[in-house]
Design goal:
The structure is a homodimer of 546-residue chains. Chain A contains 16 helices and 17 strands. In chain A, helix 8 packs across helix 10 and helix 8 packs across helix 11. The longest helix of chain A has 35 residues. At the A-B interface, helix 7, helix 8, strand 7, strand 8 and strand 9 of A face helix 7, helix 8, strand 7, strand 8 and strand 9 of B. Chains A, B: It is found in: Cytoplasm. Chains A, B: Pfam families: tRNA-synt_2 (PF00152), tRNA_anti-codon (PF01336). Chains A, B: Belongs to the class-II aminoacyl-tRNA synthetase family. Type 2 subfamily.
Chain lengths: 546, 546
Amino acid sequence: MADEQPTQIPTAQDPVAEGGEEKGPSKNELKKRAKEAEKAKKAAEKAAKQAELDAQKAAADVDYATEFYGKEPLNQSQSRLRRTRVQIASLNPNRDGETVLLRARVQTSRAQGNKMVFLNLRQRIDSVQALLTVTPEKVSKQMVKWTASLQDESIVLVEGVVKKSPEIIKSATVGDVELHIIQIHLIAGLEARLPFTVEDATRAETEIESTAEVQYKRVLLDTRLNNRVVDLRTITNQAVFKLQHGISSLFRQYLESQGFIEIHSPKLQGAATESGASVFKVSYFKGTAFLAQSPQLAKQMAIAADFERVYEIGPVFRAEDSNTHRHLTEFIGLDLEMAIEEHYHEVMELLDTLFKHIFTGLKAQYKQETEAVNRQYPADEFKWLEETLRLTFKEAVDLLVADGVDRSELFDINTENEKRLGRLVKAKYDTDYFIIDKFPMELRPFYTMPDPEDPTVSNSYDFFMRGEEILSGAQRIHDPILLAEKMKSKGVEPESMSFYLDAFKLGCPPHGGGGIGLERVLMLFLKLNNIRRASLFPRDPKRLEP
Amino acid sequence: MADEQPTQIPTAQDPVAEGGEEKGPSKNELKKRAKEAEKAKKAAEKAAKQAELDAQKAAADVDYATEFYGKEPLNQSQSRLRRTRVQIASLNPNRDGETVLLRARVQTSRAQGNKMVFLNLRQRIDSVQALLTVTPEKVSKQMVKWTASLQDESIVLVEGVVKKSPEIIKSATVGDVELHIIQIHLIAGLEARLPFTVEDATRAETEIESTAEVQYKRVLLDTRLNNRVVDLRTITNQAVFKLQHGISSLFRQYLESQGFIEIHSPKLQGAATESGASVFKVSYFKGTAFLAQSPQLAKQMAIAADFERVYEIGPVFRAEDSNTHRHLTEFIGLDLEMAIEEHYHEVMELLDTLFKHIFTGLKAQYKQETEAVNRQYPADEFKWLEETLRLTFKEAVDLLVADGVDRSELFDINTENEKRLGRLVKAKYDTDYFIIDKFPMELRPFYTMPDPEDPTVSNSYDFFMRGEEILSGAQRIHDPILLAEKMKSKGVEPESMSFYLDAFKLGCPPHGGGGIGLERVLMLFLKLNNIRRASLFPRDPKRLEP
């Protein structure tokens, strides 16, 4: 359009000057000429107007904002300007008017006409609304168009002015301010189609079901796990894994205050530990190794080696072909073992205090994260008693029998009856957390110490959350003669574990401990309903990737 | 002796009475009789004295102390008296006269005649001298004899009175008090011969070499590792593993203050990561899995999943048949990864500050432990500079060339040259800690970001302690197109790692990180000279037990 030239138009004066020297034209001729002149004048006026418009338009199409937006070159650490970047979480109405710089994901963008675009910018568990409006000399239409075309999940560097928002923006976690964009650059875009949007992946099942008007996309667990990197970006998952960190952090904090030290025991073992059936085999140079099913043997050996109180946080491997909501082939064990002075209830009580420390800590320090998870996975608040409920195995069985379960099927308490017991206990005692003590000897591994009076009963316990086992522990046999005897009676050849047995032959104090499944505690505290949601990159018999 | 009856002796009166009525005896006869009477009298006196002694002795042999010593029945948690037990470390002259109860190992016992025995009692890194002396009604000879016969490394429960010791007892770490034993019971004895004494295992090599008079037993590393449970009981090893705990604790503390969260990535992988040659294969149900050689891929994926700053402490597996002083097949990796804003030096500098935090923390909080280790493994104090020395790879090479190394062999810096460089740097800059930046691209893995100006150089660094590498790190490639290209150029088929590549296709911020070998840092800080000493139960190509 700018290249188009206005048409050449004769002016009204020229014919008059011409006619002054030649013979006068006829009346008709004059009339015709006047008409033509009038027409030409109008055309000229129109053309001039058009020219003006075209000039205006040409001026408008010059992109005066090219430096304020666009794709950044690949960051190879070319320069270091040391410009301060802020966190979305730090924005608030007190910073009204302040210009800030931040890197964030574009969760969604929404254009309003061609002059305005709204972005939802996200960082971990926080989000804020940002907007870009055409402004002379500052924000061009091209800039708005480019911004509106950004793919969801692009990573951008945004410079903007914090503005107090006139009303709370519900679609953002930081809803009392918005960001008026001055500059926006693309740091990293996408080279593939998103398998699902983060918004869809964050939606609660209840919301999907309750809304009849809109047909929301449901993102299934398997799709999520196949595309775990995107799934993990939801505010829900960012919060889940902050809470996972919280659990092990509180675990450590309490144990260190009680004189425990952290150990790291080898996962590669020369012999299959505990039970040969569910152990993974490893090719080890020209021989075979096995993956540790728990740090049980090593932590007991650490006690025989005088460490007195030890804990370990590490992977535990189970080659069990269990495809359930609560089994993984690799999970994180929070294990501890300690010398006892008089009675194994010293350990059991320490574990109990530890759990209450964790629950209290999560409640006090991770309120925002818990609420974020609850928005997607609604859950009644986790409850526990000041004085923890302790049942003996026998008492637990009696409760179930009184509720109608046939005693003959209660040799052991299976998963279904565990949950039933959880409901019974919740109804009767209003707690989601309790202990069962004194399990039958037959249900426990060979290293469990028998009760001093009744050899069919053992000095062992399980801890429960919302009706599911989250810890198993016991006093262990520290006497090598009794230990070898129990090994034999459970079909374990003492010779095959001589390095372990030797530790006790060289003197070991009475001791006990327990092992906690980190993902189970996380799943049950938050009621995530499937343990895979509590593992960063879960492993089960059918899943080894991503 | 007590059963022996005194001989029946006729009294002197009888012969006189007899002789009064019968014929008088001859003079000789009288003389003889007088002599016999004298003899009998002496014998009677002797017998009476003996009887008295025997009675005394019999009285002394009644063991009045049976309740004060002996073997305890096996602790099966029969009772819980809740008696307070103390730590040796808490004993001091201010507690003079106080009766205390404690459980400890008998490190050594030394009888003095049959009335006194000295014990060296040990708890973790502390020891105290205890003594038991025959005392009427309290400590019997039998009690002393029993105590003296306790095997080294027995675990005893001792009640005793704290006494300020007249002079410092050098053989104990708590040398200003001793414990006067009132009661001593055996909690756990030994059912096997000790492979070596803890005293022998604690002796410094320098002491063994410098003492010509005494032939000390040298306990070799392999013997120690075969009997690791006893070896770990030395005060030295108790201190080594407290320091190991210290390193990871300080690592965590610093990173958490910088907004990092702890993650747990799976060790079981569907594909061989990084390099197929040195990866352990695992039988995984009907298929095959691989053990992660590092959390590299997972932690980068966590960055693509928006966790921003993550760390992991976990086992790392290397199927390398390297039988050196510094290689293990399983070790603990202290890994971190973070998004960067402008330049990879942000990560490098954070890692540097982290290390200085660890060094400062160890020095301030683990002085006693460091000294304990130094007694067995003498080491010059670890030194670092306020402003860490940074060399480029090129500068490091130049230093070596200037010292006489042939430049043609410096394509890479091998172990020998690393150590040489460490000595050169120590001599020139007086530091045991420094950084080499900008490694040649060819020496680094495919995911390393090239320098923006010189593609033969990379944005990568190694950190060194006492001339050995303890950390390797870099800026990573976050662009999927460049990443795929680099994979191919290093012979890695992008398709084989699609789950990893996909993470970058869906948008990932610029990032970098590093991996630290926990055992290496521990070994080099303490100058233990062999990495096996820095691992609780070390694993190498030839060792899978204990």
